Amino acid sequence: MTMKKLIVCLSVAVATIAPLAAQNSVTINEEIITDYFNASIGDEDAQFEDESIIPAGEIASTRERIWNLWKSAVENYDEEKLIPLDILENRKSGSWELPSSLEPNAVMPYYYGCNEYPSYDAEAKYPLFLYMHGSGDKAQEWETGIGLSLRRFYSPGIYFVPQIPNAYGEYYRWAIQSKQWAWEKLLRLAFVSKNVDPNKIYFFGISEGAYGSQRLASFYADYLAGAGPMAGGEPLKNAPMENVANIAFSLRTGALDDGFGRNLLTQKALEVADELEKAHPGYYNHYIEVIPDYGHSIDYKPTTPWLAQFTRDAHPDYVYWENYAMYGRYREAFYNIKVIENATTSSVARACYELKRDGNTIDLNAKIVNYSTSYTQGGIDMYFSKKYSKASKGKLRIYLNEDEYDLSQPVKVILNGNEIFNGMVMPTLETMVESCALFYDPERLFPAAIDVDIAAKSAVPTSIDYVTENIEESEDGPLYDLTGRRVVNPLKDGVYIRNGKKIIIR
């Protein structure tokens, strides 16, 4: 009698028909991937499905091939590009038209150039600084911004100095959705530029630009090496300090600058940052200062040199993400966490995801936070208390990088104190292509991922599509383990290869 086992087959085509030990190259359909990338750039709904396994020895080369396809797609996409890089002193400017659905009649002029004198190295990579000017006459503020970028800020660096399109009402804000569109476009174009160091990007600004850069620092921390608002101060509900783990954060405000409570809010940010650094040493680098005897005008020179010391860690061991809507819009992903289904649908409560990595172990805490105002001044909610509870629903995707995780060994996931997964995670082409389009970041083309279901308290590698069948071991060909060795009679549950497909034997 032929013994039968319950086998979970995965409808996943492997790059080869032979066992994994053969290590053949992954087949890449450049046309299909390029079409998917173009749809992604154009914010069109698109899916890419190709769960070909990437052999361990080919992850780096496959990543390079996929990034080159992405770079080509971005460079050839029909849109307003960055103007060619030049010496900043030449004051070369361009402009972008912002989407009318987000802001009517919005054309954003910008200066773009390197402030290295007398010339710059056309083959070198430089830090990129996005400077956001203050409120007031926009022409004068823009001129002030270019002057400071030329003479008083860090050098050598590439500076993107925009002018606010509409100088009235809510449109005179740097963090609204139309500007989010612009900053994401800037990041996307900068990442494919040969002159921008992707791990040395900084957002900073003065006054209204401080409000904007503080909010954006919390919202886009995963793209930044640092952020430096000056003469500002936001209520921390608008810019949670927890999110700026892993970046350099500077906030400097005059002690006499009491407009809109800027001095008090800067002091509160300092207190919270100190607490976070004490709780998580090494993750909350900050230079927050309430400067004695100064009002709204301070010395702007110290900020950018301090920021420029720091380089982004695109794959930190500790991530904290308070997932909040900024001007009505949520981020889809942050560092290596993607939200598939938010843990709360409440307009008041927020989901918080805290991830700690130790070797191949992921310790994930999923929480819900509710804010309550503890102090109000001048009609502004200044200080808050927070109440946390465990999340009971929601779905996440956690991306894995082969440099941080040993993908030849099992990966363990602990959710809110309970182990929910301990098994192999296979690198796939689909995961790498998807993450490239999601982050458009050369540092974040992830080869593998795990999907976490908070309600079910379960997790599964994204490469698995479960189909349960009874299959005789002898009927469908031999089994191989993940090292390519023949397995005659599997004695325990595990992931195997048969006829170029992954299967799980239960």
- Fraction of residues in helix: 10-25%
- Proportion of beta-strand residues: 25-35%
Major sheet characteristics: 8 strands, mixed
How many beta-strand runs?
25
Compute the separation of the termini in Å. 20 Å
The top-level CATH class of the domain at 88-313 is Alpha Beta
CATH superfamily of the domain at 88-313: Alpha/Beta hydrolase fold, catalytic domain
Task: Kindly identify the CATH topology of the domain at 88-313.
Answer: Rossmann fold
Backbone structural class: alpha+beta
Radius of gyration: 25 Å
Q: In order across it, which strands form the biggest sheet?
A: 2-3-5-4-6-7-8-9
* Silhouette: globular
Low-confidence stretches: 1-24, 465-474
Nearest-integer average pLDDT: 90
Q: Can you count the helices?
A: 8
Reported CATH architecture of the domain at 88-313: 3-Layer(aba) Sandwich
Give the SSE layout:
Layout lengths: L3 E7 L19 H12 L17 H18 L16 E5 L9 E8 L11 E7 L5 H14 L6 E5 L14 H15 L4 E11 L1 H12 L6 E5 L17 E7 L7 H18 L6 E6 L11 H6 L9 E6 L9 E2 L2 E5 L8 E9 L2 E17 L2 E11 L4 E6 L10 E5 L2 E6 L5 H11 L8 E6 L4 E4 L4 E7 L6 E2 L5 E2 L6 E5 L2 E5 L1
Helix pairs in contact: 1-2, 2-8
Overview of the molecule:
The protein has 506 residues and is of the alpha+beta class. The chain has a domain at 88-313: Alpha/Beta hydrolase fold, catalytic domain (Rossmann fold, 3-Layer(aba) Sandwich). 21% of the residues lie in helices and 31% in strands. The chain has helices at residues 30-41, 59-76, 138-151, 177-191, 208-219, 262-279, 303-308, 429-439, and strands spanning 4-10, 93-97, 107-114, 126-132, 158-162, 196-206, 226-230, 248-254, 286-291, 318-323, 333-334, 337-341, 350-358, 361-377, 380-390, 395-400, 411-415, 418-423, 448-453, 458-461, 466-472, 479-480, 486-487, 494-498, 501-505. It has an eight-stranded mixed beta sheet with strand order 2-3-5-4-6-7-8-9, with helices on both faces. Strands 10, 13, 14, 15, 17 and 18 form a six-stranded mixed beta sheet that branches. Strand 19 and strand 20 form a beta hairpin. The longest helix is centred in the first third of the chain and has 18 residues, at 59-76. Residues 1-24 and 465-474 have low confidence and may be disordered.
